[in-house]
């Protein structure tokens, strides 16, 4: 580790949970590079972050499903900001449907974005982390990767696969100063959830033992904890943050 601010790359950083993660890491002194999909929305998002006092956040439009794009993007991050010390894989999409009706394209899109991207990003930062003798990787999975979900065989498979990668990579890097962990959120009060009709939203809330939705900020705090240099004894773990909705 150098004296410059450590660099954290957050894929899907401009989303609801991603934003909270970026802010939590920035508050902890990281230079944060937030991944995005839509350039126009990303620029507006960045202006909001700067206006709110988060000056250490930057943007990076890497195609996570393309290995060469990831490799070039990581080099650009390193050239502009420094080596990546923390990687948070938060990017994800849904293409829901029962298996009987699911198209091969729906399967591939979700696997590419939610799982293959994790291989790409981890592969592209791991050599730099090994050279530094330090790194923190946090993979944002889902409660549905733990318990499954009707109509989400693609999403649940990808999110479960994330933790398989986590456990294996954690073993490979355990003596190298690198930790790899999974965070599995339940229902979080993002814009996507809040757009669900209120009656449906209330029915979901009643299934959560703590009787409320989680907040993006709660996810951000957990990720910042795992990203801290003093969290080096936690690796290969999955941490559920779901209000008690799934315990296993």
Q: What are the defining features of this structure?
A:
single chain; 248 residues; alpha/beta; Rossmann fold; seven-stranded parallel β-sheet; 9 helices; 48% helix; globular
In short:
The protein has 248 residues and is α/β, with parallel strands linked by helices. The chain contains nine helices and seven strands.
SSE arrangement:
Layout: E1 7-11, H1 16-27, E2 31-35, H2 39-51, E3 57-60, H3 67-80, E4 84-89, H4 104-132, E5 135-140, H5 143-147, H6 153-173, E6 178-185, H7 191-194, H8 198-206, H9 216-227, E7 238-241
Parallel strand pairs: 1-2, 1-4, 2-3, 4-5, 5-6, 6-7
Characterise the protein shown here.
By secondary structure, the chain is an alpha/beta fold. The chain contains nine helices and seven strands, in the order βαβαβαβαβααβαααβ. The chain has a single domain, classed as NAD(P)-binding Rossmann-like Domain (Rossmann fold, 3-Layer(aba) Sandwich). The mean pLDDT is 96.
Q: What coarse outline follows from CA principal-axis ratios?
A: globular
User: What is the CA–CA distance across the termini?
Assistant: 36 Å
- Average pLDDT taken over every residue: 96
One letter per element, helices H and strands E, the order comes to: EHEHEHEHEHHEHHHE
Stated plainly, the CATH topology is called Rossmann fold
Query: Beta-strand percentage?
Result: 15-25%
CATH architectural group: 3-Layer(aba) Sandwich
Q: How many helical stretches? A: 9
Looking at the chains present, what oligomeric state does this protein adopt?
single chain
Largest beta sheet: strand ordering: 3-2-1-4-5-6-7
The profile of the biggest β sheet is:
7 strands, parallel
């Amino acid at each position: 580790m150098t004296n410059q601010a450590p660099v954290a790359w957050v894929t899907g950083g401009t989303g609801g949970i991603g934003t909270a993660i970026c802010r939590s890491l920035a508050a902890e002194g990281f230079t944060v590079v937030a991944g995005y999909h839509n350039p126009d929305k990303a620029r507006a998002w960045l202006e909001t972050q700067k206006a709110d006092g988060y000056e250490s956040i930057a943007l990076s439009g890497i195609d996570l499903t393309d290995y060469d794009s990831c490799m070039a993007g990581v080099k650009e991050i390193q050239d502009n900001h420094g080596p990546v010390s923390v990687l948070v894989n938060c990017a994800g999409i849904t293409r829901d449907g029962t298996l009987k009706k699911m198209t091969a394209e729906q399967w591939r899109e979700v696997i590419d974005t939610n799982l293959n991207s994790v291989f790409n990003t981890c592969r592209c930062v791991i050599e730099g982390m090994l050279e530094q003798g330090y790194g923190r990787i946090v993979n944002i999975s889902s409660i549905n990767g733990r318990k499954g979900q009707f109509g989400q065989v693609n999403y649940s498979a990808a999110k479960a696969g994330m933790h398989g990668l986590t456990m294996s990579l954690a073993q490979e890097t355990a003596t190298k100063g690198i930790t790899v962990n999974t965070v599995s959120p339940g229902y979080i009060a993002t814009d996507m959830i809040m757009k669900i009709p209120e009656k449906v939203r209330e029915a979901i809330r009643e299934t959560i033992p703590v009787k409320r939705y989680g907040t993006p900020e709660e996810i951000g705090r957990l990720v910042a904890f795992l990203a801290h240099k003093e969290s080096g004894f936690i690796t290969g773990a999955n941490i559920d943050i779901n209000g008690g909705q799934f315990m296993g």
